[in-house]
Amino acid sequence: MVLRERGIAVLLDGGLPPHLAARAYATLARYVLGFAIQLTGAQDHVEQERTAAHFHRVPPDRYPATLAVAGSLPVRLEEEFTFGVELIINGLQHLHAG
Q: CB of 88 within 8 A of CB of 27?
């Protein structure tokens, strides 16, 4: 409850209306928890290389989009987390400005 209170207070102090602050906090909290869960099963370097190689070998007729982005997969969890947080923050700024 203390962390929730602090998080919501920051969002309210930042000017978000109560309904948006509540949703933003819930979204951020679940996002962070989801990544924390993923980190418990994070792949080591060898597994990541194996996974990356797999994306380059998918059948092109079945997975053309995956093959097109294979050089960018898998996305490192740290990069994915940062991208997602920035996306959420930018979206909140857009909602707040609108």
A: yes
Which residue in the block uniquely carries the two structure tokens 């509540």?
A: 22
Could you report the per-residue pLDDT of 13-41, keeping only the tens digit for each? Answer: 999 999 999 999 999 999 999 988 888 87
Helices and strands of the chain, counted as H and E runs? 5, 0
Nearest CA to 34 out of 71, 72, 88 is that of: 88
- DSSP-based helix, strand, coil % in the chain, nearest 5: 80, 0, 20
Cα distance between residue 64 and residue 97, in whole Å: 38
Report the SS3 class of residue 74: coil
Question: What Cα–Cα distance (Å) separates residue 86 from each residue in 6, 89, 95?
Answer: 20, 5, 14
- In terms of pTM, does the model score above 0.85? no
- The span from the CA of 1 to the CA of 20, in Å, is 18
